[in-house]
Amino acid sequence: MDSRLLDILVCPATKGKLVLRGEELWSRSAGLAYPITEGIPRMVESEARALSNEEIASLKEEQA
Fold first, then answer.
1. b/e 11-30 (16+ beta carbons within 10 angstroms → b)
2. Are 9 and 43 in contact (CB under 8 A)?
């Protein structure tokens, strides 16, 4: 994914920053992972999956 696009996109639920993880965009503030399908981010809450506690913790560790 283009880094310029990642700088522009925000979580639709919280307007927080997103982090690229494989084929997903993770929102720490919402605890959601938005899928990327064929290079296109699917920024719809109903299509997102909940992040596990371990995944959320890994995001917090990176920001420390």
1. bbeeeebbbeeeebbbbbeb
2. yes
How many Å apart are CA 35 and CA 32, to the nearest integer?
Answer: 10
Range in 6-10, 23-27, 31-35, 46-50 with the lowest mean pLDDT: 6-10
What pLDDT was estimated at residue 63?
65
Global pTM exceeds 0.85 = yes
Q: Are 26 and 55 in contact (CB under 8 A)?
A: yes
Question: What pLDDT was estimated at residue 1?
Answer: 73
Is the CB of residue 16 less than 8 Å from the CB of residue 29? yes
Distance between CA atoms of 39 and 14, rounded to whole angstroms?
Answer: 23
